[in-house]
Design a protein that fits this description.
This protein is mainly alpha-helical and 162 residues long. The protein contains five helices and four strands, in the order ββαααββαα. It has helices at 26-41, 47-73, 82-98, 123-126, 141-153; strands at 16-18, 21-23, 104-107, 115-118. It has a two-stranded antiparallel ribbon with strand order 1-2. The N and C termini lie far apart (46 Å). The relative contact order is 0.17.
């Protein structure tokens, strides 16, 4: 019982539409993300465990975002080079999740197999204040989990850190 021209749920926008851009309320995202951090914070004993849990929460999101973007692009090719998939992450994935491309993609000077996706104003740490007792807590562990999920879904094994 579908309406004519309704299309699949995978073809529909993720949020409300303004022009051609799909957006989710920034306040809704900030609230949900702070609740996610508080939920995991109340169940762990250390900062590293909290970051690991945030990363594992982002992993599933990255895996599903890759599936969704691959389905929407309707291309049958799969990225086989690491630079191609990292470029895809820093442009297409970043735009679909955060509304803009990452600021840059750089290769490490020290290690040839190390790359950095740089975002000077990551959305996950914009509205989150870190208490002094959490010290070196990285609120961007969630984003590193998303990147790890995309890479794993594309067939690349990698160690991703925030």
């Amino acid at each position: 019982m579908s309406r004519a021209g309704a299309g699949s749920v995978l073809d529909r926008p993720l949020g409300r539409v303004r022009g051609t851009e799909t957006q989710v309320s920034l306040s809704a995202f900030a609230y949900l993300y702070s609740e996610l951090v508080q939920y995991h914070q109340s169940r762990v004993a250390s900062i590293s465990e909290l970051e690991r849990r945030l990363e594992s929460s982002g992993y599933g999101v990255g895996f599903k975002v890759l599936e969704l973007l691959a389905y929407r692009s309707r291309e049958s090719k799969r990225e086989t080079r690491i630079m191609s998939i990292l470029q895809f992450i820093s442009s297409s994935v970043w735009k679909s999740l955060f509304g803009k491309a990452a600021d840059s993609l750089e290769r490490s000077i020290d290690h040839a197999d190390e790359f950095m996706i740089i975002d000077y104003e990551p959305l996950t740490s914009t509205f989150l204040s870190v208490p002094s007792d959490l010290g070196q807590f990285s609120a961007d562990a969630y984003i590193s989990g998303i990147i790890a999920g995309v890479l794993e879904g594309a067939g690349f094994t990698a160690r991703v850190t925030a």
